[in-house]
Design a protein that fits this description.
By secondary structure, this protein is mostly helical. The protein has one domain. Helices cover 72% and strands 5% of the residues. Strands 1-2 form a two-stranded antiparallel sheet. Helix 8 runs parallel beside helix 13. The longest helix has 30 residues. The radius of gyration is 20 Å and the shape is globular. The two termini are 14 Å apart.
Amino acid sequence: MNRTFKDYALLTLKGMGMGAADVVPGVSGGTIAFITGIYEELINSIKSINLAAIKLLLSFKLAEFWKAINGTFLLSVFIGIGISVFSLAKGLEYLLHHYPILVWSFFFGLIVASAIYVARTIKDWNISTIISGIAGIAIAYAITVLSPAEANTAYWFVFVSGMIAICAMILPGISGSFILVLLGMYKFILGAVGDLNIAVILTFMVGAAIGIITFSNVLSWLLKKYHNLTIAMLAGFMVGSLNKVWPWKKVTETMIDRHGELKTIAEINVLPNSYEQIPGNGEALVGAAIALAVVGFVLIFVVEGIGKKLSK
């Protein structure tokens, strides 16, 4: 595929969208890749980093290697992801701490619209695709109700966390950041990125690289052999993940971790204003949250429309 500089700049912007989503627990970069139209090319390009490609690299056939792995496409997307991850980590950490309801409301709207968008791409709805979608909902929901573990900051566990989280990051609806929350590693990894802890970042990235190359082969095969069933399950993942992203929650169980910090280990979804969120400001907060959810919902279809125009 012949692409211009403008095309690659657009790919970088799409990568930035993926990176921004991947930083937030409950939101998937795979969702952004899907709605911006680069999902299957991304999976197939990552899959192409195999033994044959590595042989080309070791033989110093660099041009052939770069072409075999669709290198400029991958570089453009991953530059965008990197820009967002390193620039937004501190900001999102602050927003999630101080304005959690508003942030989650925005992403709730994003995910609802994304699930609709993905479901619309399935041309042949039948019993099999419906069952696959329901299975996706059940799996994602089950993941969201698991209790988070406590962080293990050993390098081997950072490596394993990278392998597991990256697989979720390229699945629409399954948040890699939320997997890190379940593993107890989200705050540790986010802090390492914000503080530029090179040893931790590199260990995590090596694990992520191995995980994504392995998993992309499985996902690419599923998309080729069982396209509609796979897409239906991915749409189901998005719907099931809404349980985690619901903005209004009430903590039901806490614990003191080994660092002496109070940590939430269980919470339930509640209706707006069913308990005090911000004393004296409940109604204003609900109105702002609903507005941001609508903005998130509309934004998906705006991005879709822009993507179609730029692709022409």
